[in-house]
Amino acid sequence: MVDAQTLLREIPDMSTLPELEKDKLNRAAVYKRLRKKEILFLEGEAPAGFCIIESGWIKTYRSSQGGRDVVLDILGPGDTVGSCCGPANGSSSHGCSAAAITQARVLWVKGADWRMLCRECPGLGRVALEVMLRSRRRCVDLAVELALNDVDSRLASLLLKLAGYRNGLSGKRPVAQVISHQDMASAIGTAREVVTRHLARLVEQGVLSREGRRICVDKPEQLQTIARGG
Question: Which stretches within 108-178 are classed as H helix?
Fold first, then answer.
């Protein structure tokens, strides 16, 4: 288990907070465990507060009138969830839903406590605004990616994320095996059969390999080139 202080340092600019504000945030934070498929929050609900993932994977999605879930993003360890809605931008409700794809554990500051902290702590309010803006930019980037990038690029970007390549591309790494082909397909706006076919092609090219049921990224640099449209 990661302690709250260590996990909070995953957020850019959190280390610049005054010690008093860090202490208040640490005391307000609690850990919340999510079962697979458990809902973290629903579209239209009041903002749940501040959440950062310690372990596991969570999807954000919207439901169509026909009842079909459209996945907006897949989030993993170190990612914040629902940051684009809340006191930093005056939102009164979530614009999407969030549910655990796997068992997950999040560091959570409840909505009322988060709003109070942002009012009382100027530094934290600034960080909250910056986190919200990054989340908003991510939403825009996802829309652009779906509109302009082909399936190869979108799948390559997702695989790099699921394999945990955050700070460099060193070494062979496994892709989170708990993410189904259907979840991948929903996240990049295509069909499950298309994902299965493209994964098989990447294995044939030696970019990926299979170890039992697990997929590994053997050539992250080549996968990144594909992600960039090369």
Answer: 111-120, 122-148, 151-162
Q: Single out the residue of 170, 188, 143, 185 nearest to residue 224, CA to CA.
A: 170
Residue 128 contacts residue 88 (beta carbons within 8 Å): yes
Greatest C-alpha distance within the chain: 56
User: What pLDDT, in 10s, does the model give residues 59-96?
Assistant: 888 876 666 677 788 888 888 887 665 544 455 677 78
- What's the CA gap between 137 and 83, in Å, rounded? 11
Answer whether residue 175 shows pLDDT above 90: no
Residues 146, 151, 155, 157: what is their CA dihedral angle, to the nearest 10 degrees? -50
CB 124 within 8 A of CB 118: yes
Residues 166 and 224: beta-carbon distance below 8 Å: no
- What is the distance between the alpha carbons of residues 79 and 89, in angstroms, rounded to a whole number? 19
* 116 CB-near residues (< 8 Å, 6+ apart): none
Alpha helices in the chain, H assignment, sequence order: 4-8, 19-28, 111-120, 122-148, 151-162, 181-188, 192-204, 220-227
Distance of alpha carbon 148 from alpha carbon 144, whole angstroms: 6
Secondary structure tally for the chain: helices H, strands E: 8, 11
